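Hi C.,

You asked whether I'd gotten around to modeling the 259-residue construct. I have! Everything is below, sequence then structure, no commentary in between.
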Amino acid sequence: MTETDRLDPPTLEIEGRRATIRLHRSRHRNRIEPGDIIRLMEHFDTVDANRDLRVLVLAASGPAFSAGFHLGGFAEDREAAARAPAFDVMVDRFEKIRVPTICRLQGGVYGGSTDLALTADFRIGVTGMEMFMPAGRLGVHYYPGGLRRYVSRLGLNNAKRLFMTAEKLGAEELLRIGYLTQLVAPGALDAAVDKQADTLAVMAPMAIQGMKQALNEIGHGALDVEACEARAKACKESEDIQEGLAAFREKRAPVFAGR
């Protein structure tokens, strides 16, 4: 990895209730280096610590979203490699972020980044994009969390198709199998992301964040029923539910405080 690459870590931007994390190594299809994992984990912690935030967008520069983890990064940056968590640990951490997440897919999604995007709550892609999982072609046995996520999100047959054939899928097929939650023309991508982010930002945060956690647990077959019931009880006793009911009666938009 060149010195220039080390100066292109993922950035975090905060504007109002929305945070945006952006990958910047476009000349290498935004491959993720060990140092990027360290920075991304820091950004995830910053987002979780900011109780004013309601939504996070994961985006990237250049024509491709990401080529996934750079396997050669361990040899090229030994210092960062020694400190960086494993790629799958970073992906699992992204899935557990408190606020709803949107992946802005402006181009190709390859390798480990296919799983990173799959952990987002919403994936908005563009016509002409593609994705593929080359693990079988490279001799890589994928990590358990990614295999489990593919099956829970896309179904067993689609997971087998993607992992066992390394087939490259286009945008329309990605929408059909549920990998994309929305497909738009390239020129409409930012408007679609903004609309989705704005929708999520005005929802009741206690309810939305609690249900996100429960739904992800259900997807992995590991629902903590007691914790889910406790969150539901807290919502029932919250100021937000009173505001939501009042807004419904008064035919106005609610303004939630998250308490």
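If it helps when you're writing up: The chain is about 50% helix and 15% strand.

Thanks,
B.
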